[in-house]
Amino acid sequence: MTTKIVKFISLLVSLSIIFTTARSTVLINPLLQKLADKILNKTEEANELIDEFNALLNFSLPDPWNIETIKPTLTFYQIGNKNFEVLYDFDPKKTVAHLNSIGFLHVQQLILITHGFHNNFDTDWLHDYKDVILNITASQKIPQTVAILGWGGGADILVFRYRQAAANVLTVGQWLAKFVIEIKKVQSNLRVYGIGHSLGAHVMGVAGRISKNFDRITGLDPAGPCFEKVENSETLRPSDAKFVDVIHTDGYDSRLDPSEWFFPVNHYGSLIPIGSVDFYPNYGYHQPGAGTFTVAGSHLRSLDLFLWSMTNRNRFVTDLILTKVPDFDDPVTENKPSSYRAEMGFFSDRWPIPPRNESNTLFYLKTNKNEPWSLINKGYYQDEYLQYFVASSKNVKRSPIINRGYYIRSKAIDFGWCKTIQSDHHNVVLSLGSGYDTSSFHHLDCFFIEFDYADVCRRKSEIIRQQNLYEEIDSKQQAQIEEIYFKSSRYLLIGIDLRETQRIEEILQSSSIKELLEAFLVRASTKTSINFILFNECSLCYLKQIDSDRLLSKLIEILPRLFEDRYLISIHYLGYEMYRSLRCRNDFDRFMLKHFSSIGAPIETFLDDKQIYDRFKSLGFNQIELINMKRFWRDSIQNDVLERKRIESIEPFDEWEELDCVCSVYNLTVCAKFKPSSLQVLKDSENTEALSNDLKMTKLQKLLTSISAIEMPIFGHSSHFVSEKNSIRIFGGFGSQPKEDGDEDRRHRNHHRIENIIELRLNDSFDEIITVNVWQPKDQHHRISRLHCQTIPIDECHYFLSGGRTSPRSSSSNVIIKIDPNSQSFQLQNHSFSSIELSNYRHICSLINDRKIIQFGGAIPSQQSIRLYDIESDRMVRIESPPHLNLDRHSSAFTTHSSHSLLLNGGLDSSGHFLESSSLELLDFRDSMTLKCFRIENFDHRLYSHRMRMINENEVLIVGGINSRITSNTIYRIDLRQMKLLDQFQLALSGLNCRDKLLMFHNFALETNGASKFCTIGGGGNCFSFGTHFNPIVFFQI
Length: 1038
What we know:
Elements: H1 2-22, H2 30-40, H3 44-58, H4 67-70, E1 73-78, E2 81-86, H5 92-101, E3 109-114, H6 124-140, E4 144-150, H7 152-155, H8 162-186, E5 191-197, H9 199-211, E6 216-220, E7 243-247, E8 277-281, H10 295-310, E9 317-322, E10 335-343, E11 362-365, H11 386-389, H12 400-420, E12 426-432, H13 439-442, E13 446-452, H14 454-466, E14 484-488, E15 491-495, H15 501-508, H16 511-521, E16 529-537, H17 545-563, E17 568-578, E18 584-585, H18 588-598, H19 609-618, E19 623-628, H20 629-637, H21 641-648, H22 656-664, E20 666-674, H23 686-695, E21 701-707, E22 714-715, E23 718-722, E24 727-731, E25 734-735, E26 752-753, E27 757-762, E28 769-777, E29 790-795, E30 798-802, E31 805-807, E32 810-811, E33 815-820, E34 825-829, E35 844-848, E36 852-856, E37 867-870, E38 875-878, E39 893-898, E40 901-905, E41 919-924, E42 930-935, E43 943-944, E44 947-952, E45 955-959, E46 962-963, E47 967-968, E48 970-975, E49 980-989, E50 1005-1008, E51 1013-1017, E52 1020-1022, E53 1028-1030, E54 1034-1037
Parallel strand pairs: 3-4, 3-5, 5-6, 6-7, 7-8, 8-11, 12-13, 12-16, 13-15, 16-17, 18-47, 21-49, 28-34
Antiparallel strand pairs: 1-2, 1-4, 9-10, 9-11, 14-15, 17-20, 19-20, 21-54, 22-25, 23-24, 24-27, 25-26, 27-28, 29-30, 30-33, 31-32, 33-34, 35-36, 36-37, 37-38, 39-40, 40-41, 41-42, 43-46, 44-45, 45-48, 48-49, 50-51, 51-54, 52-53
């Protein structure tokens, strides 16, 4: 008896560790401690518990509970529809009729998800799965409904009652089957797909077996104890659905031997194959990173892998299988190549099922200990192969704008692959200037031929051999073609200059290449079509257009001739490269071109939208789609709520203008060319209409300007024009302060957060800077050192410095600046404005009614409410917002219209979406605050990071900013009486000192002397990897 007591106490402790770890609770549940105390005291209840323990050792099951005891629920979710919960006592026939009437069943697919032991409806992963699936539904426009089956009443019970939970699988599966039967009666074409984890996998199996109506069931590490090696168990079976895929992650644990250790079982899954296709990541047990003793870690890993597969298609493709069939306590630790391929995870059913013969359907693949993210391990994008080709990537710290840019590039190329790879074709990819591209390692169902310079191919081939990334065909055979640096059954690496068109033609038509392609084609003999994909990732733009056109023409000519006698041929082009976008009307593209020329890699082919369209039309492509990265970023990624939140959580980011600029000059081109027998001509698509509209954009008047001989390299600052002194004072920002006469300090050459006040003295004509004075703080504790702040004058010697930031997640508090014009110094006066003061940046702050300052909005959503600071009473109060005023805004343009009114326009919300800018909002503070909106005739632009100033009492000027369609240096003159756009101007620099000067009007300051003369100070930003740009000081007159 004593031995059994000790073993049972050990069982309780181990189960507590396992299951409380999975649910993020304490190490040992107090209830289990109480039970252990009862056993140690030899109470009568101890005998009952020990009997339960013995039954568990023998894996015998009690009678299942009835449905009234378990009380399962089935909750339906659908985009655009209110959730609907089905309770355990609902009549299946009537319930299904109602579900059908409210639209839940008018879809292509119903996905049912359920949990396992010690979980319930509120378990987090169920809702994570639901959210991701619905997000896929929205982005891919595939009508789907998701339903979560919660049966916590029969599963979320005490840990030593596992046998009872296992028995309850039958009851829950029977209950679910009744509803599935009725669903298929009213929607016979509806595809039913069940996903279950642990015991939940067997629930789906029972429901599929009884209803005979499941199209697919996915078992995520189906529970092993009480199911494997047990006769008549309700285990999941291959016949329970048309397709059953199973992921095994916790089928065995050699570290916990049940014959010698205290634990009755050493795993919670099973190694025994029970699906149409079974996947054994890391051989199905001992998942890397799952912990030394945490059995549940490996058991839960299947959930992580499947969730990740939903948004990372083709990442779990494998052509390796186990060498034999594993058994209950006999894992297999060797694999071998297969003539078939399969993909583990959400897209598993997109692949043909191999014939069931020994281990033919038991696929092996290796995974990392966590999501194998790249890009400095930040988590933007997964590519485990980059570590081999960019050895220093873990040690290089890149700015957030570069990380975001490469992330968008990767997402766009993945999007392009989805549009060009044809699942019902043989896919042959010709990568032109491949560099260290890793696409071939991810798209295992394609044949890749990569071309690049010999030195690049030599290094890449060495890495492939060192890391054993491909199984190389006898290198002696490569001697036939000296340019081949690596050769495998589905991969060729060819070192050659892309301008050598004739030699490329000879290589592709050689017998050795044809034999290799023939071997690839016969693997899937049922396919009757070949899809050639010409892939260009920022390579052909370095060639002269005549050379790249000659290459493309030659490939289009010779590729169909290789196999057109036996196969239908189609050709796709997938290109990602820089281009002269009609959406870019500032000088960002010139800045980029200047950068590439400076590093000895000039861009030789730089086409605009229309030229690209005409180019591929002349090459004979039937379908041509141009996708600007700004549109892709905002329409695809920004609208993907879950993905956007994931990206925002990775690292602080506040370079919105620069991201829009760099995206506006990159383009994804996707083209298709079909044989005449399968000709498909692209008709008026959304893209061609958008392109046509861009070509018809209004031509702008040229507005001549002059620039100051004195440079003021700065952005992200605020300013104030002091009319009495005819000077402009600058506060905060990033850049370098101008060098004063006699100043030997070299700090003006280094970029940093500006800590001083800079005063620019202007001439009487308001068209040149006379002198520059740098005002010093009283001591180091009084430095300003913040970006995107606002500055309001209180009197001649005091300023209200509102908000700002030192980093995107660290905003600054309001302070009072006391200045001493005589000594040209200042100090910050710490001031307790009250607990409700605004601490934000990129916000709105303006003086109204002469002695009150209003603040609202900003980039930090929690700090966006309206605060009003009364200068006379020195009090700050929170005031109620008028109806329809959107406080969720930042980077808006604003200006005082009169002493009592504030004009607003545009901006972004906290999700990065453009606010409506075709109207002006007028906030009137005379009595109570009111809001009026006026739509501007002929003004359909949405802007942010722009500036606004009054020309006179009837006209307002909007300058620069980032436009939703274009990136612009445009100036708009608007008549407030007619609410009409009067003029649009494009700034044109004039004068000898303007040569090579570039303008990007965002993050700048705008001042006016009140006599129709204006001055812009600074602006620009970190331009991706091309360097940092600062605008000159610009003067113009309206």
